[in-house]
Write a structure and sequence with these properties.
Helix 13 packs antiparallel against helix 14. The protein has 330 residues and is mainly α. 65% of the residues lie in helices and 0% in strands. The chain has a domain of 100 residues. The longest helix has 26 residues.
């Protein structure tokens, strides 16, 4: 456990509280949803520190979102008493890049535009390691996961199985990293993410009448609900297997989805459960919990902004957009 104390977060917590008002939030999201068109919705983002994205192409949007994420993570890494908090968020992009490289149909060079620069390992470094099969500069858990996925894909011709192995390695590394922090709050968030991932896998397998063996392969260890318990969804209702209070509503909707109901409401509630966990940080005056929740909320902000803008460009109605939106942290 880290020797960092909550008082070490006094400055950062104050800084975050001052900046939370600039987050996109539910009110500004509603303004975007109600906007007449793409450009009007894009203008709302300028109030949150985004560049002017009126008339932006899809490629320009992705560049702006990636730049905002990269700049924030770099700034936050300098301010955070426990750098591991930011490192844990960067893991997602390392493993995203790993999936891109492993599944690249025409070789890793053709996948360059899909790689993220927000991971621990620069895209060029990871690509070179992949091509040369020389893993200097790549953390061993990531390197081993890529090597395993690289053999799984040609052996099985199933990209999904390769992804499953990478997902397991991602969560295992994330758990190990967060368990060394000064608070169990982040580890609790990771465990809930694992529960949500396993619940989604269970619902899809039952819904699709898939073999239990596939579910066992997909399940990730480390959640609050043991993986072996999750396998009981073939014999018990989803609501019985997932009795975790945080996932109670998710399980109810998951049971309906497993029986054939549309997945949208279930998927949305899973994401809302994760946000609900993060809101616990609002009761903390200062400490690492505030930092964890804020980084996660920045991630959610970018996801919501992208969804609304692309929805506006695609001609979705405000009602259709609201159905897709998740609960906002602020």
């Amino acid at each position: 456990m880290s020797k960092v104390k909550s008082t070490d977060y006094l400055f950062l917590s104050t800084y975050i509280r001052a900046r939370e008002n600039a987050l996109l939030g539910s009110k500004r999201l509603e303004q975007m949803v109600e906007a007449a068109d793409f450009d009007e919705a894009a203008k709302v983002l300028t109030e949150c520190g985004f560049p002017d994205l009126t008339g932006a192409s899809d490629a320009r949007l992705e560049e702006a979102f990636s730049a905002r994420r990269a700049a924030f993570l770099e700034e936050f890494e300098k301010l955070c008493p426990e750098k591991e908090i930011v490192t844990a968020f960067r893991l997602k992009y390392d493993y995203h890049n790993a999936k891109v490289l492993v599944k690249g149909e025409d070789g890793p060079g053709d996948s360059a535009r899909l790689l993220s620069g927000c991971g621990r390992v620069a895209p060029g470094t990871l690509t070179a390691a992949f091509v040369e099969d020389s893993w200097k500069g790549v953390p061993e858990p990531l390197a081993e996961a890529i090597r395993q996925a690289r053999t799984t894909l040609p052996r099985t011709a199933n990209p999904q199985l390769a992804d499953m192995g990478l997902d397991k390695a991602y969560f295992a590394e994330m758990l190990a990293l967060t368990e060394g922090l000064s608070t169990p709050f982040y580890t609790g968030y990771v465990r809930l993410n694992i529960d949500v991932a396993n619940l989604r896998s269970a619902v899809r397998c039952v819904r699709g009448h898939m073999d239990e063996g596939l579910l066992r392969t997909a399940l990730i260890d480390g959640g609050n609900v043991p993986a072996e318990r999750v396998c009981r969804v073939y014999a018990e209702p989803v609501t019985e297997v997932f009795r975790e209070q945080a996932l109670e509503k998710c399980a109810e909707l998951g049971q309906q989805a497993a029986a054939g109901a549309p997945l949208a409401a279930f998927e949305r509630e899973c994401d809302n459960a994760l946000t609900g966990y993060l809101t616990g940080a609002k009761r903390v005056s200062f400490g690492p919990e505030v930092a964890v929740a804020y980084v996660a909320s920045l991630e959610a902000e970018i996801t919501a902004a992208r969804m609304v803008l692309l929805g506006k460009r695609g001609g979705l109605s405000p009602e259709a957009l609201r159905e897709r939106l998740r609960v906002s942290y602020v």
